[in-house]
Amino acid sequence: MKILLVDDDPLILELVPLMAAKLGYDNITAVSSAEQAWHLLNNGNVIYDCLLFDIVMPGMDGVELCGLTRTIASYRKTPIIMLTLMAGQDYIDRAFKAGATDYVTKPIGVVELGARLRMATEVVTARQNVSAENIAPSKPPLKATYAHPFNFTSEIEITGFKKLVSYEALGNYLAQLSRAGLRGSQVIAVTMDQGEGVYTRGSPDEFDYAVYETADAICEALETSDFLASYTGSGIFVVVVAQGSSPPLRDIEREIQYLLDEKDLEYDDGSPLDITVSVGSPVIPSLNNAQSAIRTCDRAIARAQHRRERKNEVSRPVNIRIVGR
Length: 325
Description:
Residues 2-121 form the Response regulatory domain. It is a single chain. It is built from ten helices and nine strands. Helix 4 (89-98) packs antiparallel against helix 6 (167-179). The chain has helices at 10-22, 34-43, 62-69, 89-98, 110-129, 167-179, 195-201, 204-221, 249-263, 290-315; strands at 3-6, 28-31, 50-53, 80-84, 102-105, 185-192, 227-233, 236-242, 277-279. The protein folds into two domains: 3-129, Rossmann fold; 138-315, Reverse transcriptase/Diguanylate cyclase domain (Alpha-Beta Plaits), CATH 3.30.70.270. By secondary structure, it is of the alpha/beta class.
């Protein structure tokens, strides 16, 4: 795995490659400024598999470098690990919104560095061998009218939203908030109630369009809130939002629904593409690692699915039988 390390501290530039070599990662390029790193990344002579960025550096900082790196097609999904002294929530939020995959505060030991690099290796290996669109679903989806290049359960890439990140990054973000002792966030999930029906009936482009427009409605409904969100697949979004910065739960659901209804979405043949959403009750995270973060997200998803089921029960017609005397 080819690694690019960027840090203005000579000790880090010496120490991290030594620790990584002991772990079996000896193909590391180390540079002392974001400008040097940007030159290496932008000229494309070498494609790196994992990037380690410090944040506070003279000139361009690591967050800006992270954002610029994500504009390069070959680095849109590359693991970017922020390696920094900065433990404040503002830095954490800025880094993940710029496209960071993970966040580690200094000082870092061999064990923790190894854990982060192994996670990055797993991501790189998975993306080399199996595209995200071909991951087998947990249960067979309904037979689709179109031959989709991805499954309904697949996490598809959605671009154009600064506060929308990968599901892996969202889990790492939650875990880092906990490790830094930063509380006050809550997790909610939003389901596209007709998601599988749209996937079954529509073309791949029509399903992407429905997911994109739902993401747009979520981001607009929460635009005054401090949040970070991810599309997890299966027509489900997970949102981490700062407590006290978001509207009441039912107001969020109504606003997302209103924005979607205003769009008058249509299939390519002009027929209505109707989407309703369900927002589950919030889950307060209690975690200290990425696996615990994913379990928190799973609880939020289960609550949104329960909300959808309850709405379906209420709207289901009731057959009344009148028995004569």
